[in-house]
Design goal:
Elements: E1 2-7, E2 10-13, E3 18-26, E4 33-39, E5 46-52, E6 57-59, E7 67-72, E8 77-82, E9 91-98, H1 106-109, E10 113-114, E11 118-123
Length: 124
């Protein structure tokens, strides 16, 4: 089993930036897909960005050019740098992982292991 612990959420004004972190504890593997998902109040969960163990990334159209997903393998940590934040970026952000070779379809299908989330609130 793997435990995923998110941090870095908070409240910022529109146009600001935040960096989310996700630390992975427990059993991890060399081939994986990890990513960030979010859920706004009253809306369904949506994929934000994913990255595989080779560093290939994929982003939701709504965040392209504003968000960057990255990883520090030595620290077993995943990051999401968010810039030019908009009120519609508000929501609970979840880190997720699966032991897959590639992230094909992960943005829409989700992954196997989930953190408890960190709240991001963007005010206008």
């Amino acid at each position: 089993q793997v435990q995923l612990v998110e941090s870095g959420g908070g409240s910022v004004q529109a146009g600001g930036s935040l960096r989310l972190s996700c630390a992975a504890f427990g059993n991890t593997y060399s081939s994986y897909c990890m990513g960030w998902f979010r859920q706004a109040p009253g809306k369904e969960r949506e994929g934000v960005a994913v990255i595989d163990s080779d560093g290939s990334t994929s982003y939701a159209d709504s965040v392209k050019g504003r968000f960057t997903i990255s990883q520090d393998k030595a620290k077993n940590t995943l990051y999401l740098q968010m810039s030019s934040l908009k009120p519609e970026d508000t929501g609970m952000y979840y880190c997720a992982a699966a032991w897959l070779t590639y992230c094909n379809g992960a943005l829409t299908d989700g992954l196997d292991y989930w953190g408890k989330g960190t709240l991001v609130t963007i005010s206008s």
